[in-house]
Amino acid sequence: MTKNFTNFVPLIVFLALVIAFAALLLRPEKAEMISKPLPALSLEGLKAEDLKGPAVVNFFASWCTPCRAEHSLLIELAENDVPIYGIAYKDKKADMKRYLEDLGNPYTKIGADIKGRAFIDWGLTGVPESFVIDGEGRIRYHHGGVLLPEDIKHTILPLIKELSK
Amino acid sequence: MIPELGHFALILALVVALAQGFLPYPALKKRAAILLFSLNLIAFLSLTWAYIVTDLSVANVAQNSHTLKPFIYKVAGVWGNHEGSMLLWSLMLALFSMLVALSTVKPEGLKNKVLSIQGLLASGFLAFILLASNPFARLPFAPVDGAGLNPVLQDPGLAIHPPLLYMGYVGFSVAFAFALAGLLEGKLDKDWARAVRPWVLLSWSSLSAGIGLGSWWAYYELGWGGWWFWDPVENASLMPWLLGTALLHSVIVLEKRNTLKRWVALLAILTFSLSMLGTFLVRSGVLTSVHAFAVDPMRGIFILGLLTLYTGSALIIYAWKAGSLENKALESTAEFSPVSRESTLILNNLFMTTGCATVLIGTLYPLVMEALNAGQISVGPPYFIATFVPLMIPALILMGIAPFIAWKKGNLTSLKKQLTIPFIIVLASLPLLIWIMENQNGEGTHPVGVWVGLGIALWLSVTTISEWVKRTELKLSRIKSLPLSAWGMSSAHLGISVAIFGMVGSTLWLKEEIKLMKPGDVMPIGRYELKLEEITASFGPNYAADAALLGLHYKGSSHSIATLKAERRHYPVARQGTTEAAIRKSWRDDIYVALGDQDSQKPEYWVIRAYVHPLVPYLWLGYFMIALGGFLALLGTRKKKP
């Protein structure tokens, strides 16, 4: 009987995985973080009181490929006078420095999230992720994953413009 | 017109695939498989045509191509995006289905079931393409020009990397279909193993080549000087490779010794399931990475549905039928002693599957924790280095020993005798090798890692070569009569050891420098010196570029070995930049120079970043030998046929 049961083990493990995936895919768009007061932030180089909205908060890392992909967009955003606060997630200082020297530095201020504390407090699942914050210390938009030119044009810039009014 | 033809061919293909899957007429299945491939090919060529002529009324072309793109990248652009790559996946699936239909698989009952299962697999993926990722969708108004292909993806290596990788992924569908057909027929025996082994070899070799090319591409194109990043998408290809490696070896046990039936069936199911999981992870946007060009939850749900349907049904069939296999396997011929080839191959399987499990856990753990609302955690390269690497050390040591051990019952005394000389050679040459390298290049960052890593690589290469010597006794007649499968094993095993030389050397002996330099400045690095000669501006077909010219010397010598040109390109259409590093390859090391930003205060200063990667050429040689070994063994299985 136990022999027969072991034949079912792969199936059971697989079904558990599927349920987890489905839950992940079907969850609402991380609504819980939006319009909430800013989460705690106390990093070397960047504290909660440094964040002056409307602005973009961008989590990145030098070891993260998509971060490289979106970097030129951030530079463009900075050229449009949008303040961007960078949070370097689990990154060595030297690596981060080289990364910014290499690709340019769009950030108004940079915090080093070496222990991954801010990553957890801000509810991230990976890097890159970006937030738009308003002047009253609230998150107004959360973007998981890499930013595309459309996101900047259709979502982030209009929102920043609206918040600046 | 032609895109509509492609669309129509796809709809017909779905109908044919369903017919191949469900209709019970054996005579029909072979023709269906041929027709299915032809229709897929028509669809694929239609899309290719739309790319070649840059038909901007096709949404897919408009989003991913551009009239100014060089011809080869217009063609490669067909599969450089989500819809097109799914079409390629489907084409490969149909290709394998046709190859099975045309091959001689006995008995017919098994072959018919295999073809039915492949028809069902194909219909699912075709339905996905037609319903959720139609590459032929038209735009109401054609734009003036296309958006361009991500310039990072404009590289010849990348043009062939996905097709090879897909051939590997999709090829495992044959083993999957064979496992299910074998379970349903109650026929998983030596003949089954002989029939399935060539397919496993073909998929495994293609996957190996695909991974190798991907790694090569990351190293030479992405400009950050590494070849493996434990990126989820890389992991998604590593996992089926590890299980495929286990499958490859356990199929041999089944073929020779008629045992491990349940295990082989389960491995075959899981290997293809992990290939599908890889597709799911990349395509669903559950994980973000450079590879994930489609981020659409609808597609994720669809692919998850397919994965659940196929893997779920396969595991139900397994749970239901596996018990009946076991009774038949309890024949006395299946016995073997703890010291035997069988045992070493089982150990190999344990290491490979455990390795695969650690990678799977590292890749999925953050996702699963989040899905369960248990908080968010992250897993980086340190996790993989701490778990995966130590698992591979005993596996590699064993890999050197296993080919010396006989089937059924090995002889420990003679094993010790045979391994004494290789062991002495390793002990003697290891310090010499390390001394030669460190004398000029400087010391490694992790001395224990250097000794262990190179020790293992040396052990594996010396034992593999001595096993070859033992087999051939260095007599020409015996070398000539050595079966191709033996050549394949030697090549693949030696390839692994050669690749490890490259991995250890390029990681632990890596030298890196970053410096603000003006023309005339010199940077010492490793056994070299770099002199910045000048910075120039130039234009390519669809980009503008800054280029740095650097003279390369050996340390302490003024004789210039080479002039290196490192570029930074800016693609105005896609508004993206790429780094074209200058690389000089030699048999000892690669020197790699990338041009960074211009200093904003002092414009004559530029950021120059340089790496020396010792032994990295051996990594590519190793990948090549691994894939070659698989292909040789594959040829061997064809030759054996009467």
Tally the helices of chain A. Answer: 5
Shape of chain B: flat
End-to-end C-alpha gap of chain A: 71 Å
Number of helical segments with 4 or more residues of chain B = 18
CATH architecture verdict of chain A: 3-Layer(aba) Sandwich
- Structural class, from secondary structure content of chain B? alpha+beta
Determine and state the CATH class of chain A: Alpha Beta
Structural class of chain A: alpha/beta
Q: Would you write up a description of this structure?
A:
The complex is a heterodimer of chains A (165) and B (642). Chain A is of the alpha/beta class and 165 residues long. Chain A has one domain: Glutaredoxin (3-Layer(aba) Sandwich), CATH 3.40.30. Chain A has 5 helices and 7 strands. In chain A, the strands form 2 sheets. Chain A has a 5-stranded mixed sheet with strand order 5-4-3-6-7. In chain A, strands 1-2 form a two-stranded antiparallel sheet. In chain A, a hairpin with a 2-residue loop joins strand 1 and strand 2. The termini of chain A are far apart. With 642 residues, chain B is of the alpha+beta class. Among the domains of chain B are: 148 residues; 104 residues. Helices cover 65% and strands 12% of the residues of chain B. Chain B has 18 helices and 9 strands. In chain B, the strands form 2 sheets. Chain B has a 5-stranded antiparallel sheet with strand order 2-3-4-5-6, with no helix packed on it. In chain B, strands 1-9-8-7 form a 4-stranded antiparallel sheet, covered by helices on one side. The longest helix of chain B is centred in the middle third of the chain and has 33 residues. About 1% of the residues of chain B have low confidence. Chains A and B meet through helix 1, helix 2 and helix 3 of A and helix 10, helix 11, helix 12, strand 6 and strand 8 of B.
Task: Please name the defining characteristics of this protein.
heterodimer; A: 165 residues; alpha/beta; Glutaredoxin; 5-stranded mixed sheet; two-stranded antiparallel ribbon; 5 helices; 7 strands; globular; B: 642 residues; alpha+beta; 5-stranded antiparallel sheet; 4-stranded antiparallel sheet; 18 helices; 9 strands; 12% strand
